[in-house]
Amino acid sequence: MESFSINGRTKIVGIIGWPVEHTLSPVMQNEAFKALRMNWRYLPFPTKPADLPDAIEGVRALGIRGVNLTIPHKEAAVPLLDELSPAAEAIGAVNTVVVEPDGRLFGENTDALGFGEDLAAHGVRVSGARALVLGAGGAARAVVYVLASGGAEVCVLNRSVDRAEALAREMSEKVGAAICAGGLDEIPAKAGWADMVVNTTPVGMWPAVDSSPWPEDVRFGKGQVVYDVIYRPQETMLMAHARRCGATAIGGIGMLVRQGAAAFKLWTGKEPPLAAMEAAVRLSWNNR
Ligand code: NAP
Fold it and tell me: How far is it, in rounded angstroms, from Cα 206 to Cα 236?
């Protein structure tokens, strides 16, 4: 396959993280390039926190087309970029950098784009919905931004109540909508209020698959949507509970693939091959 051989015209993108060994992004993005017969490659760039400014300058200097950023660089990269999208600005974190033709560095948060696009793909209405978000970490920031800026009424419940309150306060100011906050002990009281519940905690994630952030004795209603951002396992205990109650359950693989697809589109300008990207992720799980 001539177009897929590395040569002088090969375009490079990649991921900057520390550690970076476990990321699924190289498999997903390289499969996308292969599916579209594009002479591009996606590489891992293990980068210590202290080296991030040099690495970002290196991206610009080496003619790299863009990078993803992962733990622990998503917030630290913000002041190193020339321009941010409204989502990245409000969330305070960047997971995708695009090197513009003039060398300017543009930062986007495609976790937010991926979540929003996956909700839309599942036909979930955001505007006017009442949404309960469990957790107040990095994923919660993207989720709360998408929901609140999309016109949902949002309530954040977190193990550490002060963190939920800080997130609600900050995002309320940025988005201009009231957001309530509380502890996870408020789940029984708030369960019936919500049209949608989004779990952004890692509770239930592989290998601790026998755990759930949701009390077993609190039932879901048939019209409710339960979205778990965890993507491994594909069906968490929370999702299984929701399905047993007749609610709609959605897992995090769509968000994962769509955040990668959004980055692919920003770098290449091409429509991402979603099915090939998702298949690559599933195959790489099976092979681990
Ligand atoms: P994070 O920044 O560390 O935040 C974790 C949040 O979960 C915090 O609010 C924390 O509460 C809470 N939490 C942690 N352990 C808990 C426990 N045992 N009981 C109750 N609450 C607990 O993590 P993150 O980056 O947001 O990631 C969270 C999850 O989202 C991970 O499973 C990650 O894989 C997933 N994720 C998925 C996607 C996707 O594309 N599908 C994207 C990003 C993240 P405290 O504030 O009290 O510590």
Answer: 9
Q: What is the enclosing helix (H) or strand (E) of 119? A: helix 110-121
> What contacts 231, CB < 8 A, 6 or more positions away?
251, 252, 253, 255, 256
Length of the chain: 288
Ligand 1 atom nearest the C-alpha of 114 is 40
Residue 72: asked if its preceding bond is cis (omega within 30°), the reply is: yes
Q: Ligand 1: which of 144, 186, 201 to mutate, judged by most atoms within 8 Å of the beta carbon? A: 201
Eight-class DSSP state of 71? T
Check if the beta carbon of residue 165 is closer than 8 Å to that of residue 196.
no
Q: Cα–Cα distance between 3 and 40 in angstroms, integer?
A: 9
For the chain, how long is the longest CA-to-CA vector? 61
Residues 11, 34, 48, 74: which is the catalytic one?
Answer: 74
Catalytic status, residue 174: no
Per-residue pLDDT of 119-175, as tens digits, reads 999 999 999 999 999 999 999 999 999 999 999 999 999 999 999 999 999 999 999
Within 6 A (CB) of ligand 1 lie: 111, 114, 135-140, 158-160, 163, 200-203, 205, 213, 229-231, 252, 255-256, 259
DSSP class of 80: G
Residue whose CA lies nearest to ligand 1 atom number 20: 159
What letter represents residue 92's amino acid?
A: G
Which domains does the chain carry? 11-108+254-286 (3.40.50.10860), 112-251 (3.40.50.720)
From first CA to last CA, the distance across the chain in angstroms is 28
Residue 42 phi, psi dihedral angles, 5° rounding: -115, 120
Average pLDDT over residues 226-242: 96
